[in-house]
Amino acid sequence: MQPPTPIGVSDKRRQDHGSALSNLTRAELCDIVRKRCACSFATFPRIKSDFVAPLARKLREHFDVWYDDFQLTLGDNLLQKITEGLTTSDFGVVVLSKAFFRKKKWAENELGGLFALETKTRKLILPVWKDVTEADVRSYSPILANKLAVSASEGLQKVVDEIALAVTVSQRKDELNASSASSKVKALAQTLAQRKEAEKLAYSEEGARLVGESVEALFAEIERILTEGASASEALRFAFSKPMRHIFYASTGYGMYLGLGVRDFYLNSVVGTTLEAKVFRRRFGAFDQPHSDEQFFDELVFKPTFRAGQVVWGEDERLCNTNELAAHLVEIFINYVAKQAEGS
User: Fold this and answer.
1) What is the residue-level pLDDT of the chain in tens, covering all 344 positions?
2) What 8-state DSSP symbol labels residue 318?
3) 159 vs 149: CA distance, rounded Å
4) What secondary structure letter does DSSP report for 38?
5) C-alpha torsion sign, points 36, 177, 4, 111
6) DSSP notation for 248-262
7) Is residue 81 a contact partner of residue 182, using CB atoms and an 8 Å limit?
């Protein structure tokens, strides 16, 4: 079904409206959840009997409609009942007619109430133009003239269909918003569960074992990357050493070193454990004795944690697995080696 062609609405606005409704079918309209739908009309008997009352009856087939002829009985407080109808409704169908524009008190009060309830994210007023022009509506209210409307001249069924479409689109937006909120709750629950599991492993022998294995795998991966990368070169060679458990050095003939060491590692806890990485240059004397004036270029600290039972390493807000950390450290190291080789 094509969107309405309301009086005084530009083609672009009609196209935007149509694209939002293009996936809806009449069958879907008949299957929408019932909502309350307030109707606010001018009170001239001819307008009500000719159009408003039949419209209200048709809408009542799909919605819980608040309409004065349906709700008001002898002795009711008129203002109180109208206020109840407005505040308990999801939408207000406003039939704009010449009678309406003659500033009838109750019609204006109802419209004012709907405007007060409408927000930027909640479309409440659904305008229907009955024997009025764009100039008529704009003269009465520029805000109303700017709202997409349906003309009564297109027939009663067309008006009903367009109201149902507007309600359905709004309902789907509400469902999407609810789904988005639900997804955020699930994501938070998952994050908290992962954090709890990580804390549990951090205080366990199993967690310490996983971190120890990750450290050894890190050393091996750095050695593999550097060895394979320099395998075809006669000018670049790397040497590797592990003087103690959880300490590792990779060095070049330029005196450049990548040193890695683990601190505060215990067999039953890695809560305070850190991995320190340093890039530095060491100078040697005539008999290969190291000088004390080491030059440090970079110092990095990584903290182990766990995701899905696997060790990941954190630096500030960044998390990476063992192989990613190895590649990251090699890249940093090689950049400094290249700078020293250029300056030598």
Assistant:
1) 333 322 222 233 333 333 333 333 333 333 333 344 444 443 344 455 578 888 888 888 877 777 665 655 565 555 566 566 566 667 878 888 887 777 656 566 666 666 766 655 566 778 888 888 888 888 887 877 878 788 888 888 888 888 888 877 776 676 677 777 777 888 888 888 888 999 999 999 999 999 999 999 999 999 999 999 988 888 889 999 999 999 999 998 778 999 999 999 999 999 999 999 999 998 655 445 555 567 899 999 999 999 988 999 998 778 999 999 999 999 999 999 988 877 65
2) E
3) 9
4) E
5) positive
6) EEEEETTSEEEEEEE
7) no
Q: Is 175 helix (H, G, I), strand (E, B) or coil?
A: helix
Q: What are phi and psi of 314, to 5 degrees?
A: -110, 135
Q: Max CA-CA distance within the chain?
A: 113
Short-list 21, 325, 4, CA closest to 148: 4
Q: What is the DSSP letter of 292?
A: S
Assign 143 to helix, strand or coil: helix
Tokens of 228: 């394979």
DSSP 243: S
Q: Are 340 and 281 in contact (CB under 8 A)?
A: yes
Q: Report d(CA 290, CA 21) in Å as an integer.
A: 77
Contact between residue 55 and residue 42 where contact means Cβ atoms under 8 Å apart:
no
Per-residue CA distances from 30 to 17, 109, 127, 201 (Å): 20, 32, 21, 54
Domain positions in the chain are 11-178, 205-343
Instruction: Please give the CATH topology (third level) of the domain spanning 11-178.
Output: Rossmann fold (3.40.50)
- If you search the block for the tokens 């789904």, which residue do you land on? 179
Q: How far is CA 90 from CA 4, 167, 303, in A?
A: 21, 9, 52
First to last CA, the chain: 77
